[in-house]
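G.,

No rush on this.
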Amino acid sequence: MRTILVSFILLSCGIRSLAQGFDTLAEECLGYFTRGETDLFEAAYPGLFMEYVKENEPAYRDAVEAVREGDLGHALSNLRERLDTDLFLDELAADTNFTRLHNLPQWEELISRADAVAAGYNNEVRLRLKEVQAKDQGIRLLYLYTGDGPVKDKLHQYMHRVDAESGAEVCAILDRYGWLGPDEIGEGGNETLFLAVQHATDADIQLKYLPMLEEAVLDGRAEGWHMAFLTDRTLMNQGHKQVYGTQKIVSREPGKSYIVPLEHPEQVDELRASVGLRPLAEDLADYGMEWDPDDYMSRLPEIERMYRERYESMSGR
């Protein structure tokens, strides 16, 4: 799985080891949100995603530390290492952490290389998707950062609005261009196509674009784990059993968290491995859950009852 997967997997599990920059921005965003300063909030919260990635991407973080220690050559080497992707193409020149590098001839070479990488993409679409990605992931980071209570509940409602807007934006791109590969829009843009469809509030969107995603995986224009998540989501939306074990219901009440029923529980790790996913036990551990096939089978009647009740409630049956 690509490096950018951290944005999806860690946002699903919780926030870990964030530096002061993220905390400061998150508190500012919460202040804007609670005071109803909508314009300031909407301008600020998308920045949370890149702040998070910078603080958690080893090569970038090490480059910042190397500059502080005066090891400018090591900093440049680390930044060159990240230019094989689009992850930081648009941030390097503006990041004040690297001001000390600006007078070096190697810096101009680095920025020229970043510009050349960007020019090799459909840059208009890549930048549109980067905005979608920042909103999609930024609001989720803020939601996870916020403690339980009315503000978190309101953020959840706001997230649905963001997801609806992101879904509409990405649907327009997919309808015009098809499922663009990472060589066309970068790894971040390619993953954002998946994330926006996966998070869409309209289940019909997920059903519509799943065949397109399946074809893209076969052609190498998308990752197998993208298809696994979207496949399971569409099955869950219809009240069916899932295939890859990517969907789980996490409750604040002990005993009410469960994995959505599996079509082939005895083969789930083999199926997950086929699309590049970790074993189910490792995945569930991030949610404070355990995977014990025998326990799952003994609890299955109870799990199916909770799952059925949830589906009927959400579908209005």
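When you get to it, here's the other one too:
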Amino acid sequence: MNMKKLTALFLAAILAAGILASCGNDAEPSSEASSESSVTSELDSESSAESSAESSAEETESSQAEESSQNESAEPSEESSASSETASKPATGNSSVSSKPAASKPAESSEQAPPPAQSVNTDDSTAPEGAEVSLSSIISQLYEGIPEEEMPMVMEIALTAENSEYYVGVPSSSYTEGLASDSAIGSIAHSVCLLRAKDADAAAALAKDVESKANPAKWICVTAEKMIVKQKGDLVLLIMASSSNADTISANFDNLSV
């Protein structure tokens, strides 16, 4: 009896389990279908949202492009209107800008142009009568007539208290002005010294003093062939040179008109 009950219960349990299993299989498709439909609706909503966002973005871009084109088209018109307004306004007398540049005048110099160069005659040998002729100019006249090959290279030296006795044998206090024309080469004995005294009487006394004290061998290694001392007016001439040159210089001195 117990075995039959157990068997009947077991079979009932098996049937119940089969029924329950069949019910579960029938319910699962419906849930899956509902889930699939919900997923599909979500995808559709997302796609619709994306499409709406894209469309709104496109609309925004198109509206911005239209605005920029409108601005660009408006700017030239504003510039043209501004230029037309400027052109329509007449220029006032107080305007600081002139349409035509004023012609600039060349600056006038306050300094006057220097006069044209004029030649100046430095040769005082033609000085007016009564004017003193320079000692250098007189010495140049004394050398006239001497052949170039016989004339040594000379240099002019102003006589001072330091060198006077070497050149003429007397101190510089004995005369008012003195100039020596000596050979630039020490081995050639050539010296022409011209002195100016305060007057003719002083020049006569000076000539005697120079003649007694001048040294024709002042070069030590050579001695002048000839020494001549002459006086004319307030001038005293000392010549120490070769005989031919000394005679020519002496004759030129005699012919001076000073």
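The radius of gyration is 68 Å. Strands lie at 154-158, 177-183, 191-196, 226-232, 235-241.

Enjoy the weekend,
O.
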